[in-house]
Amino acid sequence: MARNYFIAGNWKMHKTRAEAAALAKELVAALKDGGHKYLVAPSFTALETVAALVKGTNILLGAQNCAVEEEGAHTGEVSALQLKDLDVQTVILGHSERRHLYKEDDELVNRKVHIALKHGLDVILCVGELLEEREAGKAEAVCRRQTVEGLKGVSAADLSRVTIAYEPVWAIGTGKTATPEDADAVHAYIRGVVGELYGQAAAENLVIQYGGSVKPENAAALMAKENIDGALVGGASLKAATFVPIAKF
Ligand code: 13P
Fold first, then answer.
1. CATH number (domain holding residue 141)
2. Ligand 1: which atom is nearest the Cα of residue 165?
3. Which of 28, 65, 175, 179 stands the most exposed, by the fewest C-beta atoms within 10 Å?
4. pLDDT > 70? residue 155
5. What pTM did the predictor assign?
6. For 97-115, what is the mean pLDDT?
7. Which residues touch 29 (CB under 8 Å, ≥6 apart)?
8. Which of 211, 247, 234, 199 is nearest to 15 (CA)?
9. Which amino acids are annotated catalytic?
10. What is the average per-residue pLDDT within 131-145?
11. Which atom of ligand 1 is nearest to the CA of 212?
């Protein structure tokens, strides 16, 4: 497989600056000889601190969200321009917590994708079905819709700056991981959808991460699957003791 594994830690709303710095330092040391592509996504408040520590290393800096507007009267929002100013390289968009807790719909996520790409940020676009959608046999339809709508208007050239993360919502923070077979089947489906939109070669090159209760114990079995090209890790990314073994699976 020609695709490069991409292992990312989404720290969500955890860690003070001091705690974030301590973890970043541990990861920089532990992953300097790691063979994959790495990223950490701290809270906005810790981005500047972590940026200084990962600069010049093999760990990329990500943000967990960005505003849909470039600037203006948007109290509480952080723009793509402001993230670039902090040396952020990549932004996670459409995370299920943004979609479900903060009511972000496909159209909003798509607008954010465009703003991020326009300002030179790479994108991790998250897709994934709720438990009731899976039980109703709608997992593929939901992932198709979120992929098609999320990528609407994105050029083939810009697609090379997009990673998709398949995160079944029922597996996030629950300890329930999708089986490698089930996850791989959805990844293959999403790759097929991207193939319909951008052609076979672009789909083959697309990196699709799996997210949802990835742990040191299950990472290797997931990564062994043909269509699983990395991981977007939540809980287990908060400690070097659990993130490093995943990153070096
Ligand atoms: P957990 O690894 O805690 O299940 O979270 C996954 C996730 O949402 C990463 O974005």
1. 3.20.20.70
2. 10
3. 175
4. yes
5. 0.98
6. 98
7. none
8. 234
9. 95, 167
10. 96
11. 4
Does 1 map to a domain? Answer: no
- In this prediction, residues 203-222 reach a mean pLDDT of 97
Residue nearest atom 5 of ligand 1, based on CA coordinates: 234
Given a cut of 70, whether residue 2 has pLDDT beyond it is no
**Is the beta carbon of 62 within 6 A of some atom in ligand 1?**
no
Instruction: Check if the beta carbon of residue 173 is closer than 8 Å to that of residue 235.
Output: yes
Q: Is 10 in the pocket of ligand 1 (CB under 6 A)?
A: yes
Query: Which band of pLDDT confidence, cut at 50, 70 and 90, is reported for residue 121?
Result: very high
**Ligand 1 close to Cβ of residue 88 (< 6 A):** no
> Identity (one letter) of the amino acid at 27?
L
Calculate how far, in angstroms, residue 72's C-alpha sits from the geometric centre of ligand 1: 32
Domain with 70, as residue range(s), is 6-247
Residue 100: C-alpha distances to residues 52, 154, 201, 222, 231 (Å): 33, 24, 33, 26, 21
Is the pLDDT assigned to residue 176 strictly greater than 90?
Answer: no
Ligand 1, atom nearest to 214 Cα? 2
